[in-house]
Structure formats: C-alpha cells, structure tokens
Amino acid sequence: MLYVENLHKSYQIGKEQYEVLKGIDLSVAKGEFVAVMGPSGSGKSTLLNCMSCYIPYEEGKVVLGGQEIKGINEKELANIRNKKLGFVFQDFMLLDGLSIYENILVPKIIQGKVRRKEEQRAEMLMEMFGITHIKNKYPAEVSGGERQRTAVARALINDPLIILADEPTGNLDSKSSNKVISSFQEAREKLNATIFMVTHDSFAASHCDRVILLKDGMVYQNMQKKTTSGKFQDELLLAIKEMSEVKKDDLI
Amino acid sequence: MTLYSMQSKLRRANKKNYVLYIFCNFIAMMLITAYTAMMMSPTVLDVLPEGGDSRKQMMAVFVLACVGCTVFTIYGTSLFFRMKAKEIGLLMALGAGKNRLSAMILSETALISSVSSLAGTICGIPFAWILWRLFRLFIVDSKEMILRFDYSCLLVSIVFLVFIIFAACMMGLRYLKKTNIIDVLHEEHKNEPVPETGRIFGPIGILLLFTGAVCGYVAPRVYMKVMSAYPPAWLNLFYAPVFIGLYLILLHTIVHGWKKRKNRYKGIISRSMMKFQGKQTVNNMLVVAVLAAGAIFGVFYIPISMTGQMIELSQRPYSYMYKYPGDTVGLKADQTEQIADAHDLSLKDWQESEYLTLGMDGIQEIEEDNDKFHEEYTELLQEGSFLSEDSYNRITGQNVQVEDGTYYAVNNQEETVGFYLNQNGTMLTNMVTRENLATSFKGFVNYNLLVDTGGGVYVISDRDYQRLNSGIADEWKGTMAFFNVAGEDSYDFAKDLLYSLIDSFGDKGEVISHYDRVAKIAAAENGEVYWGDTDVMTQISYQNPDTSEFRGYWKYMPQFQIMDKNDMLKNMAVFFMMFLFIAIICLVAAMIICYTRCMTIAANNGYVFTDLRRLGGSSDFLEKEIKSQAVKVFSVPYITGAGMMCILYTLIMYGNDGKISASEMYGLLVCYGIVLILSGIIYLLYRMTSKKIADMLM
Known about the structure:
Chain A is α/β, with parallel strands linked by helices. Helix content of chain A is 37%, strand content 25%.
C-alpha cells in the first residue's frame, strides 16, 4: 500500500542546516493500523508531512499505491491528496464557517461531486462515529472529541488508500481520545481503512497492529502487536525507556 | 454544495475579516482620492503659488500619504490573507488544485478589492467636498474658497486602485506558491522576530536622527556657498540618516525599551510577544511616526503663520495706514475725513509724510545655465521707499539719529524680514536727475507698520533727503498717511476707504508688490525685457479688489487693522485649509495603521493568550498584556513623530534670527496645545482598540 525508502529531509534554520530524517525505510500494508512514536524532535511529524506531500523532501522514495509521489506535477499531487490520502490533524483543522456535515463533505466539494451517493456516505460515517446528532452544528459548538471524529469522517469520505493522522489525540482528554481511537478501529474493521498515525500517546499506539519507534531521524525499532493492548502498551513503554538509553550507533 | 457556494458560506462566516479588509481599501482610496482632488483643485492651485514652497510641501506630504495608505492597504491585505491562510492551506491539504484555488482566490480578491477601492474612489470627492464645506461653515468662508475640482485627479486614484488590486492578487498567489502546505496552515502563528540588536543602537539612532536633520538643513546652504549654484534635489538625501535613526530608535524601543528595569520579569510576556512580531511592527511604527510628523507639520502651519500676525495686528499704534504715489490724486486728509463722517467716525492722531522712491545699488545673484549662479554688483539694483529722519521720528514717536551718508532699513519688531531689505547699498540714485549719493547701511530700525517686503522702507538723514529730493518728479514721490478713528471702527468704513483709494489711483499703480520700476529702467537700459512685464504668475486687477490676490499682492495695499483682521483668515483660507486637510489625512492614515497593526498582533497572538489563560492568567493580567502592547504601537510613533516636529519647529524659529520672539513663542505654545489635543484623540483610539482586542481574545 505504502512504502518509504531512504527518506532524507533537512531544515534550514538561519545559517544552520538540520537533518531531521536520515534515511527512513518503512512500509504499511493494506488494512494495517500503524503508529509512529518517538521523542520530540525525532522526526515523526516531518515524516508524516513528507508522506503527505505537504512538504518537499530532498532524497528517497515515497510510493503510494504503486505510484511514487516525488516529481509528479502539481495537479496530480492535488489529486493524490484529494482521492488517495485522508488527513487527520492534531488541531482538527475544520472550517469554522461550515457545519459538521459540510466539513465532512469538503473533499467531495473540492472534487465538485456532491451527489446523493456522497451525502449518504457522509451520513453513514457520521452514524458510525456517533456524531449524527451534531450534523448541523458548527465546530465551535461541539467538543474536541466530536471535532476530531468529524475530521476522521472527513478523511474517510473519499475512501482513501491510507489515512495519515498527526497526533490525533494530542489535544484531547482520555475519554475523547478513546473515542477517536475507536473511530479508527471501526474504520479499519468496517471500511478496511489503512491508518498511519503519529502519536506520543502509548495508550493510543497500543491499539495499533504495529508501532514504529523513531529516534534522531532514524527507525529505532519496528514492534508488531502480538498480545493485548494493555500488554502491548507495557512493551512499548519499556522499548521507549530502552531507546532513551541507547546510543545513536545502535540504531538500525 | 460547490466550491464556490462553500466559499460564499465561508465569506459570510468570516465577514469581520472581510469587513476589515474592505474598510482598509475603502479608506485608503477615499483618502488618496480626496487628497488628489484637493491637491489638483483649481481652488487650491490658484492660491498656492506655482513653484512655491507650499506646493512642494503639499507634494511631499502627498508622497507621505501615499506611502501611508500603501502600507496600511498592504497590511490590511496581509492580515486578510493571514486570517484566510488556514482556509487556503486546508483546501490545499485536502487536494484542491492550485490552479482552481488560484482562479477562486484571484476572482474573489479582485472583486472585493475592486469594489471596495472603487467605492472609496467614488466617496473621495464627496468626502473632500464635505470636509471643505465644514471648514467653510464653521471656520471661514470666502469667494476664493468655493471648491472647484479638476476631475483628471481621478487618474491618480485609478493608478492607485490598480496597484491595490494587483498587490492583493499577488499576495494571495504568494500563499499558493508555497510548496510547504504546513507553513500555509500555520501562517497565522508565524513569527516575524526583529533582529537582536545591542543597547547601543538606541543612542546611535538618536545621533543619526539629529545628524540627518542638521546635515539635511545645512547641506543646501553649504552647497550654495561652495558651488555657487542652486542646490539640486538629490541634496535631500542628506536627510536619509533621519529615517535610519528613526528606525533604530523604534527598534530599540521594541527590543529593549528605554526604561532601566529593576525587575527584568516585569512585562516580559508582552515584551517578548512584541519582539517576535516585531519586524512588521517596527516598519509600521516608522511609517506612523513619519505620518504623525506630516500631520503635525500640517496642523502647525496654521498657528505658526497666524499667531504672529494676530499679535502684530492687535498691537498696531495706528488703525489705518495707506500710501499713494505722487502722480496719482490720492486721498487727502479732508477726503478721508468725509468718508469717515459717512460712517459716523472721526479721524484722530493723523500723521502724514512724504517719501521718495530712489534707486539702490547692490549685489545680485545672476542665474547661469546648469542651476549655477554668480554674484554681480548692479548699480540700479532695486527701488526703495525713503523717509527722512524727521518724518520717521514724527510718525513712529521714536528718536532715531541718522548720520549723513548712511541709511537704516525698517524691519519689524522681531527683525524677521531683514532678508527682504537691502543691507549692502553703497549708492542712492534720484531716478530723474540721476544724481547719486554715496551711502552705507547702518542697521535696522523697527516699526511694523512700515515694513514693506517689496522694495523696503528706509530712513535717511534730513539733509540727504533734501539733496535727493531736488529735481525729483512726482511719480518718484509718494505720501503715507497714518491715523486712528474716534467712534466704533467699522469694516464698511475700511472697505469704503480702500475703494476710494483705488479710485484715486486712476489707471496708475496697478502692479504687484514686487514690481520694481528701478529694475525695469535698468533692464531697459541693458536692452532687456523686465521680468515683471512678462511674468503672469501674480496678476492683480482693480476690478477685483476683494480677492486674496489683490489684497495680498497689490503694491499699495493699505494696512487697515479691522479689515486685515477680518480678511486675514479669508485671504489665507485656502492655504490654511489645505494644510489642515493634509493634517487630517495623515492623522487618519496613521491611526488606521496603528489600529490594523494592533489587530494583526491580536490575531497572531490569539493562541498565546489561550495558553496564558490555561496557565492561570486572570482577565486583568491578560488585559494588561494587551494594553502594554497596544500602547506602544500608538504612543511610540506618535510621540516620536510629534516630538520631532516640535523640536524642528522650535529650532527653525530659533534658527531664523537666533532667538525666539514673543509671537513665535505664542505660536509654539498654541502648537504644543494642539499636540496635547491630538494626544487625547490618539489616546481615545488606543482605548477603543485595546477594548476591541480584549473582546476578541477573551
């Protein structure tokens, strides 16, 4: 579904050049729910933004559904963002002037295809994520958790190849976080959605099939979930603890 | 729902953002159109002399107003797009193609900019008319003040309008050109930090400010002295350090502040917030400081010009003074008495004196090509009106002793018109007999009523007067009359007297004050045409004795206290109103920039205030943080600009004659009073803006 090969990305801050991603390799299979964890500055969000074609990268490959995204023209890139990718941002990024229902339909509005079929899908997603009752409300009138579930529904409206989520529970309390994670799980189970999520939250990550640990712009560990969420969370915490003690030379 | 209907719904939801943008464009275009309409109005152009300083000042302030309007339009636009950035970024993130977004943003921006700018342009001329009408209604009205427009002024507005639309579209496209969508999404939170400068930059700024002011002031004089040429326009570049100095002062204010802080943590949040949004804040402050200086310049023009005149008028020892040349019938005492009788008045303190018009030699600047000049001695340089020592003492009540072979020039009490008087004469000439008398300049005597900036009035000894009087024709003689009236002085009497005086001239003496018969003879003898017979800049006519031109420039214009008082405002009305208009435009532009800057700071720092509230910041604390930033945006540039102008005017007053006279001091005090009133207006706007920001953030 998606693979990343030898991805490099640097930022120029003043006269200094900072290399944030130092050759990342990873892949995500269809229907998989993958999380990326790592300390601040490890390059999680940069990796996600490069995979989303939001920011340009210098070297490496990002291949989505068999198509490499680097070097393709602007129009095609917009088409990929619209049809093949779904995004969930930490700060929801809903349009305040549109209702919850209209926000979900924005990707379809961009395509210029809002027919009955699309409206039915939006209604189905709202039903699935328990936000039908706030359909006609505006983002400022609903809770953070409801806003994020709206964002998840918006990401799924086009039935994308993959959903990229950047710390989707970062701005939420634990109850709302649970509901958002449940939404992802439900999307995967019912819609066979593929989800790639960057998170700091070990509890959220413990619900994923696999967790990739990043450190200093490189993949430190790839952890497959083989047990219950609770135990997997313990494993994750242990791995994170170990990671903080390991020197750079030990990275894979 | 389509992309366009979605846009229209978002527009409705974000209407405050659109209203601010429309307001900025509207105001900018209205101010520019109103100013251009006034600047190009025949009403104004007829009064401000072509090539004169007033027109240059008007043009300089116009450039300033254009810069100000450009700045706040660009700021309005950037604020608009900053607030819209999330929307644009999100649509890009969700797959809207740049071409589609470009078309959508360009059409929306072009439409809104065009409509708001066009509305501003359309309202500009009525705005100028209403403002002018208010001046006429509440301040002063005269025939000259009837406002006429030259509609070609709209061409300037159209150029500015096109610029606004172009700049807005370019700014919109700038967001779309960004390759990093995350940057667009987070544009609202983007910082613009000022460069970290050392504490020394503040004092360096002050030094540069003063150095620039002194160099700019002195450079043309030095150039004239050294190069014997008229100063070229590029010499104004010597003023450039003023702007650099001003920038450094404002930068220092934002980065360090001028107070030595005992507690380094006091105000640390607002200071750091300003610092991280400081780049544009400092740029804005610079423009506001210059605009405030422009406004103060415009508003000072009135008291500085008028206070001295008002004092001079009220202190005149004679209410009436007139003169007429000897070859006209003139008004004798009995005729004047008759006119006074008709107005139930009688004459008192009557004094009458004969004077001679003589040729004077001196040094003249002769213009060459390439703006160069050289000085040349000219035997028949100019004419002067000469009183005998006895006549002068009788009229003035002074006791001046004049030695034979010397002369005194009559200056005003404050000795501010010495520039117009011949201080280098070595020879006086009877223009009929051509008899010469060697002489030398002895100094000034002071009597306001005898001041004549045309050729000047001089005093010679009785013996020299008799010598030069010998064989002189009537046309080179004249009579001066001075008197007061018993009874209630009336404007109608003064007017009748003026008309009678004009009638008594017949067709003679219909010339402007600088018309010089001696220079004309000298030109004719050299086979040249006298400039006064060719120049049509200031033509006067006995047919229009009530016009500003006639009363301002007639060579024999009498000085009637009641008429001068009444006419002073009317004669100078257009002049003054234009400068008042300039002040209003600059002040409005400055206040709008301050307002939009504060709104930008509030919009950019919204998330900081949210964080502060989460960290337990009380409403009072947050309000204090808001106010401490807004107060800087409003007060620092205003104090700097106004302070600069106060110092400049005081220095000019002092620099003219090495002292500040009583009337100048009164003028300056009135100016300082106006600065205080304007400070009050700025303070009110600051309070309103702070409240609006507080409502927005809390």
